[in-house]
Amino acid sequence: MTEVRQQLIRGFFDAIAAGNLPDEIVTPDMSFWSVTSGTSDRARFHGGVKMLAAIFKGTLAYVVDSLTCEDDRVAAEVRSHGTLPDGEPFDNNHVFLFRIRDGRIAQVAEYMNQFVVSEKIVPLMQAAMARPSA
């Protein structure tokens, strides 16, 4: 059971790095919370994943340093690395807490260095949201 949950969580990080969160790995009522954006439902989170992937040159890669599984919970220590549009490197450290239900992710909470995100990512996301849609 632990190995299945670890694969699910590693798949989650691969998916968000690619900018696409497949429906089959999250529950229909999946919720996401982070220190920088508060609570999001599945649709808002999916939109944020796509936008985040679009603002990096290449991809925002996630390196899973550790996974700890107990009952319906998984804790992940993760590092992210990417290159911003101006060529500046981006690095952050995260702790994700997941709740699993029926083999899919039902809840995610993300803790990270919010100062790095506020300084480097938030302005890029705000600019992307302000652009007229095609």
For the secondary structure, the number of strands is 6
Rg, rounded, reads 15 Å
- For the biggest β-sheet, the strand order reads 2-1-6-5-4-3
Order of helices and strands: HEEHEEEEH
Mean pLDDT: 89
| Count of the separate structural domains | 1
Overview of the molecule:
The chain has 134 residues and is an alpha+beta fold. The protein has one domain: Roll (Nuclear Transport Factor 2, Chain: A). 36% of the residues lie in helices and 45% in strands. It has three helices and six strands. The chain has helices at 2-18, 42-55, 114-130, and strands spanning 26-34, 38-41, 57-70, 73-83, 89-101, 104-112. It has a six-stranded mixed β-sheet with strand order 2-1-6-5-4-3. The radius of gyration is 15 Å and the shape is globular. The N and C termini lie far apart (44 Å).
The gist of it:
By secondary structure, the protein is α+β, with helices and mostly antiparallel strands. The protein contains three helices and six strands.
